[in-house]
Amino acid sequence: MPESAFTLRRLAWDNLKRRPCRTVSLAGMVALFAFTLFAGTILNENLSRGLESLAERLGADLLVVPYGYEKETQAALLRGEPSTFYMKAELLDEVRRLPGVLQASPQFFLASLDAGCCTSKVQIIGYDPASDFLVRPWTRENRSALRSGQIVVGSRIITEVGGEVTLFGTVFTIAAKMEPTGMGFDTSVFMTLDDVYGLMRRAGLAEGDPGEAARFISSIAVRTGPGRSPKDVGNELMRRHAIDYGLDLVLTKNLVSDIAVRLKSVSSLSWALAAVFWILALAIMAIVFSSILNERKRELSIFRILGASRSWLGRMILLEAFLIGLSGALAGLLAAALILFPFSTLIFQAIGLPHLQLSGAMIAAYALAVLFLAGMAGPLASLYSALSITRFDIYQTLREGE
User: 398 with 306: CB under 8 angstroms?
Assistant: First the structure.
């Protein structure tokens, strides 16, 4: 009996093709494991990077917002969901006078119904470059100030520095672009407060006196100094001004903690599903290969009579299992890639957590790791059956078949 690698592979492949339903079913179990593990790993890593970015870059210790708009503020920051809300700008001076406040910077949130840069409405955020400590550190050009008519855009806005964007009929020049943040900032447009107020006047968005818009802001980002916790500063602010101004607070530490809890739930679910499919695939394949061995004892005995060694038969069984595992792993990876990458934006929007995309090299590394783990499921499941070949008596098997 020839023992060339080509003959062994061809024989193993022919054996699998004779039972296509069984082969596809076993490969499907491996594919489910590969799909779940790869998709879960990529999602978890993207979300973990987004959480790290949020924790490191959010900058403010607390955000002061109008009462009832805590959720809208979080949605605008984390997912870029456009919102528009106001509170009196005079509150900024009161916040700056609070004990423990190191920095305070205002923002104005305005939802754009149309923009030449995007296929859907975007969040316009007006900020004060003189007091800003949120936007400037994230811009690639690190500009300290913007001139009138200039804007900063998020990393996912599909225009480059020097290009132009039309907002409410007004053309703006892109002066800087933000580094990826994994947050709603990636799909937002930033401009000075004066430009926001001017835009509202020209677009007829300011009711009554055109100068009225400048009397309002949407939120105040606060950074506290040493020796005073953000919670204490927030409590003091609420005690003094909550009733007069109608305020709410977003503590960024609690925001990160809440996201970490949700991320842990998503991660635990994906790992649990992967473990279930892994164990299920091994168990089913082990049972099936054991059953197959009993069916094929006469066939394998004939191979032995023709000169095949026990080790050669064992390698054939392992190769059949390996081909099943490899084909299932490749199918699972392909299915995950076809679903995960084209629809990643929709998936992360549904999850509602900040995220950052992995590099191509990291994705390839994870794919190879999953390919190895899933591909080895077949050989591991068939190992007992392959070893059993060395223990049965060929002549007794042939007599039993007579």
Answer: no
* Token pair recorded at residue 365: 């590394």
Element (H, E) at 239: helix 230-245
Q: Which residue has the higher pLDDT, 161 or 144?
A: 161
- How far, in Å, CA of 220 to CA of 207, rounded? 23
On whether the CB atoms of residues 141 and 165 are closer than 8 A, the answer is no
In the block, tokens 């949605």 appear at: 75
Rounded to whole angstroms, the Cα distance separating 143 from 78 reads 24
**pLDDT tens per residue across span 281-328:** 778 777 777 776 666 666 666 666 666 666 677 677 778 788 888 888
27 vs 382, higher pLDDT: 27
* Closest to 231 measured CA to CA, from 206, 249, 204, 257: 249
How much is the average pLDDT of 82-108?
89
pTM: 0.63
The mean-pLDDT minimum among 75-84, 215-224, 246-255 falls in 75-84
Q: Does residue 392 surpass a pLDDT of 60?
A: no
- How many angstroms separate the first and last alpha carbons of the chain? 24
Q: Where are the alpha helices (DSSP H) in 58-164?
A: 70-79, 91-96
Q: For tokens 């950052």, what's the residue? A: 356
Retrieve residue 372's tokens. 């190895």
CA distances to 150, 201, 288, 381 from 170, rounded to whole Å, are 11, 11, 69, 66
Q: Which residues pair with 108 in a beta bridge?
A: 126
| Helices (runs of H) and strands (runs of E) counted in the chain | 13, 11
Question: Token digits for 387?
Answer: 């070893």
Q: Is the pLDDT of residue 389 over 50?
A: yes
Strand bridging mode 219-224 / 62-66: antiparallel
For residue 119 the two structure tokens come to 């296929």
**Residues whose CB falls within 8 Å of the CB of residue 221, separated by 6 or more in sequence, listed in order:** 59, 60, 63, 103, 104, 105, 106, 107, 133, 134
